[in-house]
Write a structure and sequence with these properties.
With 280 residues, this protein is of the alpha/beta class. It has a single domain (2-278), classed as TIM Barrel (Alpha-Beta Barrel). It has 9 helices and 9 strands. The protein has helices at residues 21-29, 47-62, 114-123, 149-156, 169-177, 184-207, 240-246, 260-266, 272-275, and strands at 2-10, 35-39, 68-79, 87-95, 126-130, 163-168, 213-217, 229-234, 251-254. Helix 1 runs parallel beside helix 2. Bound molecules: zinc ion (2 copies). The site of one zinc ion has 4 residues, from loops.
Length: 280
Amino acid sequence: MILKADTHIHVDQKGNHGIDPIALARRVNTTDLDLIAVLEHNKITTRALIVEAELQRLASITGKKAAQVLWAIEGGLRYRNGGERDGYYHFVHLFEDSFTKYNRPDNFPHKGGPNILEQYKASYPGRTIGAHLTWLDYDGKNPRLTNTPEMTEDLMGSGLFEGVEIVSASNIAFLERTPRNQNFIDAIDAVRDLARMYSRVREKLHKAGVTLAPMASSDGHFERIVGGVFTEFEGGETSDIFGQIDAAGTKAVIDVETPRQYKRHIGENRELRDVVRFQK
Ligand SMILES: [Zn+2]
Ligand SMILES: [Zn+2]
């Protein structure tokens, strides 16, 4: 059976940064996602429980199977590979275990380094996915943190990640909201660059007997984006995603209408999913 997962959806309470848990459950109920991971930046709360309860409630009304909910966190990682500046990256840690109000995992220390992440992974079994790695110079507020393509490639092969998001809908969503088209070409180039980097790293790791799973997520900050970009994997149950990440048996999928503005840059007869063709 082919299962669909969106392993990066925000339910942050702070600011305007996440989706209301009830609204998210309602949205997910209209999609055919089998598994979702809900998370907040740097922090663990119990909002996953609210999403889960609402999904169950909706399932009891509609008779449709409720999507499973994974606990997760999006952390900020300070990373360096020999250069004089540190880079700053986001990652998603998918917990193997479920939690309750009383036994939640610790928050991930903001801008913790690789050692902190190693410890965190040891304390909380799961899989760590590099998030939206196309973003260069991510931390605009701190110009001393400068990501470079070399650093990103190095990080992909560092062993800290079991998978990387080679497609993140947040880039697409961000561009949809930009008033002008000036950034479309950049975005498509960034996606292509990431595809090339991923292929190189995957080949290198393959020779060393290590795998790196290709993943796709909505990085959902608003409901509408959830459902169109996801990771497919073969399995009998949703927890098989962990084994499939280990085997790099996942597939990154874009299943959204190509925004009209993109057509001008990729060709009228082409779809975004054809440009971003670097699945398994
Ligand atoms: Zn992020
Ligand atoms: Zn995110």
